[in-house]
Amino acid sequence: MTVAALRVAETSAITFRRTYRGSVFSTIVNPILFLGAMGLGLGSLVDSGVSTGDLQGLDYLEFLAPGLLAATAMQTAAFETTYPVMAGFKWARRYEAMVVTPISPTDVALGTIGWAGARVAMTTVAFVVVAAFFGALASPLAVFAVPAAVLTGLAFAGPIAAWTAGQESEYSLSNLFRFGVVPVFLFSGTFFPIEQLPDWLEPVAWLVPLWHGVELCRHLCLGEPELLDIVHVGYLAAWAAAGAWWASRRFHRRMVV
């Protein structure tokens, strides 16, 4: 990131410093509710009703927590690059004020994505702390799941920021969550192995970045890294880089006449 892009991220950080209290619930309480209700509550039923082979020999809480970590990273990145980005273009119009200074549209795009990555880091650190309290982390390597989750978030932040830059109506943003984020959340290995999906749908899950993030976080949280994790990292990094490039192009097209 350039110095100018860091300044763009700094403006979001200053705003967040004044409004962070409103995010405490989603950052801390949501993981407690999810892990308590799904990991312990539903998990007790799952553990008594399926063979250990179905969940790779794990308790359901241990299986679920890393998946929720990656999914939380995706959801945080999606939120930070939808409504705030549209506000920057349409409602508050702060992006217009930025580009009349030496800050370029590319700096605005990269700063926006950088701040989304910072928010993902804050959220995932809190999640890991809560998961450790629940006993859902089987290895000290779980600390490395935080950067893995941040990379997962960045794989979504760039493409979603680029897509948002081309939208005029806020209704399209709700459709993105309804028809994009939620289905990806449900069918990318967070709640059950994707091998349980129909044969024709399983390859689709392989193409979605979240599945790679879930697998990477799960291996780290279990203390069982695999050689294939290099592929997961490369795939997520490719999405993040391509998304940043696309966002730069879309921001420039919208702000430069």
Describe the structure.
It is a single chain. The chain has 257 residues and is mostly helical. It has one domain (3-255). 74% of the residues lie in helices and 0% in strands. It has 11 helices and no strands. The longest helix is centred in the middle third of the chain and has 29 residues, at 105-133. The protein is globular and about 60 Å long.
Brief digest:
This protein is mostly helical and 257 residues long. It has helices spanning 3-19, 24-49, 60-80, 83-91, 94-99, 105-133, 145-165, 171-186, 202-207, 209-221, 229-255. The longest helix has 29 residues, at 105-133.
Helix/strand/pairing category: mainly alpha
Structurally, the number of domains stands at: 1
Major beta-sheet overview:
none
Number of strands: 0
**Basic shape:** globular
Number of helices: 11
- Using only CA atoms, what is the Rg? 19 Å
What is the end-to-end distance?
25 Å
Q: Which stretches of 5+ consecutive residues score pLDDT under 50? A: none
Element-level helix/strand string: HHHHHHHHHHH
What is the helix content? over 70%
Name the beta content range: under 5%
Mean model confidence by pLDDT: 89
Top keywords for this entry?
single chain; 257 residues; mainly alpha; 11 helices; globular
